[in-house]
TrEMBL record:
InterPro entries: RNA_pol_sigma-70-like, RNA_pol_sigma-70_dom, RNA_pol_sigma70_r2, RNA_pol_sigma70_r4_t2, RNA_pol_sigma_r2, RNA_pol_sigma_r3/r4-like, WH-like_DNA-bd_sf. This is Sigma-70 family RNA polymerase sigma factor. The keyword Nucleotide-binding does not apply. Residues 15-79 form the RNA polymerase sigma-70 region domain. Belongs to the sigma-70 factor family. ECF subfamily. Signal peptide: none annotated. Gene3D superfamilies: 1.10.1740.10, Winged helix-like DNA-binding domain superfamily/Winged helix DNA-binding domain. Transmembrane segments: none annotated. Residues 120-164 form the RNA polymerase sigma factor 70 region 4 type domain. It comes from the Bacteria. Keywords: DNA-binding, Sigma factor, Transcription, Transcription regulation.
Length: 185
């Protein structure tokens, strides 16, 4: 980022290529709306470009980038407070983008894996917003609890609690939903 701030446009391309997938998935997983995710994603990169000349390397670039993304999400949620976009479930179109079964799996096993993936996505969508964000940043983004605390602006202990409660809630939800599926068979 420091190189980009000094006018090296290829440095921005490197940053963009390295972080584009994870950042876009962050927005998709948080709000589940492809168009809104694209808008917020573009706005994040726009803010990175605008802030380049003032960038200080007091934190890792990734932490800074996701802090911008987090703040944009918060701003959006505040703007549409009556509508809880975070609880929307994934559409079938999004589900098919996320899972491509292996050719080695039997049809029954493919169905089971698809059902479990669907249950997991549903259970993630039921998590409280702060737990879901911490969990996704940790598991999908690969961020440590310390980095997540910096991104979302809470204490390390609060972040650890959010991740722990999210994991507990997911485990319980998936087990209960899987049992319901088994009972229906």
């Amino acid at each position: 980022m420091l190189s980009y701030a000094q006018g090296n446009s290829s440095a921005f391309e490197s940053l963009y290529k390295k972080h584009k997938g994870g950042l876009y998935r962050y927005f998709i997983r948080q709000i589940g709306d492809l168009q809104l995710a694209e808008d917020l994603y573009q706005e994040t990169w726009g803010r990175v470009i605008k802030a380049a000349s003032n960038y200080e390397s007091s934190a890792k670039f990734t932490t800074w980038l996701y802090r911008i993304a987090h703040n944009l999400l918060i701003d959006h949620v505040r703007a549409v407070k009556p509508v809880d976009l975070f609880s929307e479930t994934f559409t079938e179109e999004q589900d098919s983008e996320c899972f491509l079964p292996s050719d080695e799996l039997s049809p029954d096993r493919v169905m089971e894996v698809n059902v479990k993936a669907s249950l997991l996505k549903h259970c993630i969508s039921l998590l409280p917003t702060v737990q879901k964000e911490a969990l996704l940043l940790n598991m999908e983004g690969g961020f440590t609890a310390g980095a997540i605390a910096e991104i979302v602006g809470v204490t390390l202990e609060a972040t650890k609690s959010r991740i722990r409660y999210a994991n507990q809630g997911l485990k319980s939800c998936v087990m209960n939903k899987w049992q319901e599926v088994q009972d229906e068979r």
